[in-house]
Amino acid sequence: MLIRDVPPYINPRPRSFAALMDLYEANYIRLRRLCPQLVALRGTSISRVAGAMDLHLTVLAHNRYTSDLSLTYLFRDEGGVRANPDLHLRIYFDARQVEVLSRIPHHRPATDAHHETAALLERWRENRFLYKWLGYCLHQGHGFRTAPADDVGPFFLTPLFIPAP
Hints:
This protein has a domain at 20-105 and 121-140. 27% of the residues lie in helices and 25% in strands. The protein has helices at 17-34, 115-140, and strands at 44-47, 55-62, 66-72, 74-77, 80-83, 86-92, 97-104.
């Protein structure tokens, strides 16, 4: 039997609140693949991959159920050093979700007359950007490890990412 009407909680439409929550979960999975021992990290860590830009991860805070961090590339030029994109992320370990709290530079200010809709769309854009960027970083071979690969910490249930030799 072919089911034609899929309930929205199974296949949420893009840019809906349900789809945003799914995106937060997908970002959590990708971030944990990038950094399986996230709770063990302190300060700034740098992932270096031949032929790719260095990826900088700075732990801003660890709390009981959340961690805040910054993820960025650093560009050096005659004007100094610029972080871009400069994402401030919050990881919710109990819900297994990652949310972009801020992104510098911002994509664009919300100008929609319906503020809630505009805010949802902006959160969707920022978190969709994170999803794609994390996938790109993983594809390049980036990763942050503090211990042997078999010691993956209390919140990471199964190793999803094994870097290529």
